[in-house]
């Protein structure tokens, strides 16, 4: 049984949802420099804005002008929690101003007031894939230590402003995306001068891991600051958890899977939950010729700023194999690895593995013994809007149902699970491809890949299903 105060809700991120990219003093962030794309044609980052190119984040699905309507829809489904992010560039347009942008702050006051009206708890991601672009230009993003101060200043501002409105905070979305080349665009912003497709960004492990070190320090500093000044706050991490299995019982496969699990899934949260670098990373750094610059006090900072709860996104699992032929032939998932013959794959090549969620929850809870929350999960799929305005998304219901069943199993296994916020509870722009066609929502937004659409909202079949799930605290699936 799920606990009585289980936090049911849904997740979004400002850069994929808000739009209003240059209204009321907002500055440009990295996603505002990203074009649209698709599964087969990667989105691009452009240094300068191009005429006649679509930048989907600019309007996105326009939460900025629809927040009252959207929050009412969330309330109708019975949401207890609403995961959202604050857009850094709405508060500090370049990330470097001395004083915050009052209009930006006022927008979130209104959003939080609206949530309060329905008794919905906000869960706020402080930085969700939207570094101010000015920090890329000036500092090569998180590669420079100076960005830590910019982030700390931003956090202090929002903590003080929203201290009575927000209790749950996540310092960085999917922080471990910085371990992968694509993370340079999405997360670390180490793309100074880069102009090109997201999948061709130069692979610079040392730069990314240095940037990650700065994110760890920034995260730890603000967690300590929050604990000292706002004892009511609960501070969490947020990691991608891509369950990784050995493809076979060949010991080489087992070791390859263990290595992948460590670098991809455990490294960042080991630092954030335990407060120090894990021993296994030394060897990886040596192999990759990565030398991280740390300052004298850094180890102490990490020790003092550990998380109160662990959150993660879960979409897929993957397999590791030492067989070169298999690796060559297999498409695997976006993350890495070879395809699992026991699993089905989504239209975007992500392998669907509900039991992997149970396994992951157990692994995470065994390791850290902290309350856990699944803050993203869901099926990106093509939806068909029928003439009568209905959307029959039984595939999405199936996916979510199977994952909730496995969450319940994990709870029976002993995991302390706080809540569940499926990704993109309302349609938003895709982070990896920049398209609208990859939809996750319970609510359909009339917005298309060519930028057309009147932005009207429609309830999908899954909307009515999820409402019942919440009403029954997960008993009616
Ligand atoms: C995660 C991100 C989200 C989100 C989701 C789905 O990586 O935290 O921002 O978009 O994945 O991914 P996509 O939009 O690429 O399908």
CATH topology: the name is: TIM Barrel
Helix- and strand-based class? alpha/beta
User: Main β-sheet, in a few words?
Assistant: 9 strands, parallel
Calculate Rg over CA atoms: 21 Å
- Uncertain segments: none
- Which ligands does the model contain, each kind named once? 6-O-phosphono-beta-D-galactopyranose
- Kindly estimate the percentage of residues that lie in beta strands according to DSSP: 5-15%
Number of strands: 17
CATH superfamily: Glycosidases
How would you explain this protein's 3D organization?
The strands form five sheets. Strands 7-5-4-3-1-15-14-10-8 form a nine-stranded parallel β-sheet, with helices on one face. A hairpin with a 5-residue loop joins strand 12 and strand 13 (351-352). It has a single domain, classed as Glycosidases (TIM Barrel, Alpha-Beta Barrel). It contains 15 helices and 17 strands. The protein has 477 residues and is of the alpha/beta class.
Q: How would you sum up this structure in a few lines?
A:
With 477 residues, the chain is α/β, with parallel strands linked by helices. The protein is built from 15 helices and 17 strands.
Comma- or semicolon-separated keywords:
nine-stranded parallel beta sheet; binds 6-O-phosphono-beta-D-galactopyranose; two-stranded antiparallel sheet; 477 residues; TIM Barrel; 15 helices
Topology record:
Layout: E1 7-11, H1 14-17, E2 44-45, H2 63-77, E3 81-85, H3 88-91, H4 102-117, E4 121-125, H5 133-139, H6 146-162, E5 168-170, H7 183-188, E6 196-197, H8 205-229, E7 234-236, E8 239-240, E9 243-246, H9 251-274, H10 281-287, H11 298-304, E10 310-313, E11 317-320, H12 324-329, E12 344-345, E13 351-352, H13 354-368, E14 372-376, H14 394-413, E15 417-420, E16 443-445, E17 457-459, H15 461-471
Parallel strand pairs: 1-3, 1-15, 3-4, 4-5, 5-7, 8-10, 9-11, 10-14, 14-15
Antiparallel strand pairs: 2-6, 12-13, 16-17
Helix pairs in contact: 2-4, 6-8, 8-11, 13-14
The structure holds 6-O-phosphono-beta-D-galactopyranose.
């Amino acid at each position: 049984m799920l606990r009585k105060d289980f936090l049911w809700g849904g997740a979004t991120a400002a850069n994929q949802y808000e739009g209003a990219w240059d209204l009321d003093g907002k500055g440009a962030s990295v996603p505002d420099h990203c074009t649209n794309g698709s599964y087969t044609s990667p989105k691009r980052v452009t240094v300068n804005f191009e005429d006649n190119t679509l930048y989907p984040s600019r309007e996105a699905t326009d939460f900025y002008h629809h927040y009252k309507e959207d929050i009412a829809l969330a309330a109708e489904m019975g949401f207890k929690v609403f995961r959202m992010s604050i857009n850094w560039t709405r508060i500090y347009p370049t990330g470097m101003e001395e004083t915050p942008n009052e209009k930006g702050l006022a927008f979130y006051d209104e959003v939080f007031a609206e949530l309060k009206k329905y008794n919905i708890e906000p869960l706020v991601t402080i930085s969700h894939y939207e570094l101010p672009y000015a920090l890329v230009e000036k500092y090569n993003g998180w590669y420079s230590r100076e960005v830590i101060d910019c982030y700390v200043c931003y956090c202090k501002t929002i903590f003080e402003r929203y201290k009575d409105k927000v209790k749950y905070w996540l310092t960085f979305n999917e922080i471990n995306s910085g371990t992968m080349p694509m993370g340079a665009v999405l997360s670390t912003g180490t793309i100074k001068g880069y102009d090109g497709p997201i999948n061709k960004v130069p692979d610079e492990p040392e730069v990314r891991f240095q940037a990650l070190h700065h994110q760890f320090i920034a995260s730890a500093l603000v967690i300590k600051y929050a604990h000292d000044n706002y004892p009511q706050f609960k501070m969490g991490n947020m990691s991608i958890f891509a369950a990784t299995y050995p493809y076979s019982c060949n010991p080489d496969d087992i070791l390859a899977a263990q290595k992948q699990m460590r670098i991809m899934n455990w490294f960042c949260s080991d630092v954030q939950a335990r407060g120090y670098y894990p021993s296994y990373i030394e060897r990886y750094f040596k192999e990759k010729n990565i030398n991280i610059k740390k300052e004298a006090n850094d180890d102490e900072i990490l020790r003092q700023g550990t998380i109160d709860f662990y959150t993660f996104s879960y979409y897929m699992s993957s397999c590791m194999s030492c067989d070169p032929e298999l690796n060559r032939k297999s498409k695997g998932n976006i993350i890495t690895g070879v395809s699992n013959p026991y699993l089905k794959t989504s239209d975007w090549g992500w392998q669907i593995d509900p039991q992997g969620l149970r396994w992951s929850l157990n692994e995470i809870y065994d390791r850290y013994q902290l309350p856990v929350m699944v803050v993203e999960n869901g099926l990106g799929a093509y939806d068909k809007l029928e003439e009568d305005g209905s959307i029959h998304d039984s595939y999405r219901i199936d996916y979510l149902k199977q994952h909730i069943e496995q969450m319940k199993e994990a709870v029976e296994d002993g995991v302390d699970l706080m809540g569940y916020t499926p990704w993109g509870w309302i349609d938003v722009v895709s982070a990896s491809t920049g398209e609208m066609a990859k939809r996750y929502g319970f609510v359909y937004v009339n917005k298309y890949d060519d930028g057309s659409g009147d932005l009207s909202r429609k309830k999908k079949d899954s909307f009515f299903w999820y409402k019942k799930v919440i009403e029954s605290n997960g008993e009616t699936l």
